[in-house]
Amino acid sequence: MNKSYDYLKSILNENDYVIIALSGGPDSMALCDLLIKLRKEININIVCAHVNHGLRIESDDEKVFVEEYCKKNNIIFEYMKIESYSNGFNEKDARNKRYKFFDKLIDKYNCKYLLTAHHGDDLIETILMRIGRGSNLKGYSGFSIMSDRHNYKLVKPLIYYTKDEIMGYIEKNNIPYVIDNSNLKDEYTRNRYRHNILPFLKKEDKNVHIKYIKYSEMLLEYNRYVEDVVKNTIKRIYVNNNLNIIEYLKLDKLIQKRILDNILYSIYGDDITFISDKHTDEINKLLTSKKPNIKIKLPNNIVLIKQYDTLSFNVNNTNCINYCKELVNNLKINNKEFIFVNNEESDSNYVCRLNSSDIKMPLYVRNRKNGDRIEIKNLNGSKKVKDVFIDEKIPKDKRDGIPIVVDSAEKIVWIPGVKKSKYNKEKNEKYDIIIKYV
Q1: Do residue 425 and residue 280 come from a single domain?
Q2: CB–CB of 360/257 below 8 Å?
Q3: DSSP 37-83
Q4: Does residue 79 belong to any structural domain of this protein?
Q5: How many alpha carbons lie under 13 Å from residue 352 in its C-beta half-sphere?
Q6: Is 222 inside any structural domain?
Q7: Are residues 253 and 283 in the same domain?
Q8: Which helix (H) or strand (E) holds 236?
Q9: pLDDT digits (tens, 9 = 90+) for 376-429
Q10: Is there a domain that residue 16 lies in?
Q11: pLDDT tens across 270-315, in order?
């Protein structure tokens, strides 16, 4: 397990808090043992995140096992039990609840990393399952050793090893663990791949997982290249929620599809599952139609309006139209005005002080997007803008109209009249920008 150990050593620093999703099974216990060994070299703080899905009788005993192991090994123990599921148990709902718990712990301990015990066999299963059901270029790659999630990194250090190699490590080091018997049942899709397809692949080549890692890395490399092309192109042809149809139709079909996916995700965020192939087919027909003025409705009251050579993405049944404008002096939004000043005594939420060296200029003003998060001043970590609005008791019909100030890297630096970010400076701190919203 040297590769995994060395990788962890390369990313962790003295006094870091690191969270491990610890079920008590052999994979997560092996990963936890690596962290305990690493702690002897680097003074890290290990936080165990244990989730009881409430589906098996044994889960309560597993909680006791993990808690006692953590106490014995000086590991911080954090626990959550899922009491109910919406419309019965499903994997997506369970995953959302788990990661909501993990996200809270990331904020609580100001962590950079969440570790999970996914290994080489899991990567093969994930790739094959996605090929079976269909996905996109990134989806077909399965998962990488490190990926971005909100304000932290999701890390899978055991990707280099198979289940058999992990079990060998467990036995050699006498590491205790529990067994989840549901992993033995073929009623779950992943288990059928695990029990029926993996043995054949490993019989052909015992190191087949290494080839799948290379396959995954190659797809991710291609995906990064395509994303860079899309990122540079979308800035040119999609401005203020308006798509230049003529320029769009000149592009390669792959780039067209990725640009459309990006636009829809920027609008829908976590609700992107509402968009089906039927919807994208409708959009493509609209884009190629000879009619100069057409509109179609999408889920969540989104309306697409084609006017000659422009396609606008608008919010229906509200007084708010999506916008994104560069923040300049005397910019008017919602009958209020942004003013740059040299001095200001007030310290209310209608005043923002910034140091231009902390952010990427220029600044922009836009309305909120699904999934927006703000790093709030005096609070470790970030918070969903949606939750900020709920906390401030802002009515639903007003939220989409509230301006959001972002820098050129899309970091939210201020919600005027509502909340300041960590980038806001106190009067006694260093700043070179003062903006009022009056």
Answers
A1: no
A2: no
A3: HHHTTS--EEEEEEEE-S--TTHHHHHHHHHHHHHHTT-EEEEEE--
A4: yes
A5: 28
A6: no
A7: yes
A8: helix 208-237
A9: 877 778 899 998 988 888 877 678 779 999 999 899 999 999 999 999 999 889
A10: yes
A11: 667 778 888 999 999 999 999 888 889 888 778 899 988 999 887 5
Kindly report the CATH number assigned to the domain that includes residue 415: 3.50.40.10
**Other C-beta atoms within 10 Å of 178: how many?**
16
Token digits of residue 403: 């301006």
Residue 232's SS3 state is: helix
Q: How many residues does the chain have?
A: 438
Sheet holding 17-21, edge to edge: 76-81, 45-52, 17-21, 113-115, 152-155, 146-149
Based on the structure, what is the number of domains in the chain?
A: 3
How far is Cα 105 from Cα 49, in angstroms, rounded to an integer? 8
| 228 part of a folded domain | no
Are residues 172 and 41 both part of a single domain? yes
The stretches in the chain having pLDDT less than 50 are 316-320
**Final residue in a domain of this structure, among 281, 315, 349:** 315
**54 torsion bin: left (phi>0), alpha (psi -120 to 50), beta (else):** left
SS3 207: coil
SS3 of 382-414: CEEHHHHHHHCCCCHHHHCCCCEEECCCCCEEE
Burial of 342 (0-12, 13-18, 19+ CB in 10 A): exposed
Residues 109 and 208 in one domain: yes
Two structure tokens written together for 1: 């397990």
Two structure tokens written together for 340: 């740059």
Residues 6 or more apart whose Cβ sits within 8 Å of residue 294? 286, 305, 306
Ramachandran angles phi, psi of 173, nearest 5°: -105, 10
What ranges in 110-197 are assigned the alpha helix state H? 120-133, 137-140, 163-172, 189-192
Asked if residue 346 lies in contact with residue 335, where contact means CB atoms within 8 angstroms, the answer is no
Closest CA to 19 of 84, 72, 79: 79
Could you tell me the residue range of the domain that residue 339 belongs to? 324-437
Q: Which of 292, 315, 338 is the last residue of a domain?
A: 315
Does 201 lie in the same domain as 285?
no
Query: How would you class 401 by CB atoms within 10 Å of its CB: exposed for 0-12, middle for 13-18, buried for 19 or more?
Result: middle
Residue 352 tokens, joined = 């923002």
Sheet of strand 324-326: strand arrangement? 324-326, 364-366, 404-406, 412-415, 419-420
Q: Does residue 340 share a domain with residue 311?
A: no
Residue type, 236: R
| Integer Cα distance of 138 and 253 in angstroms | 17
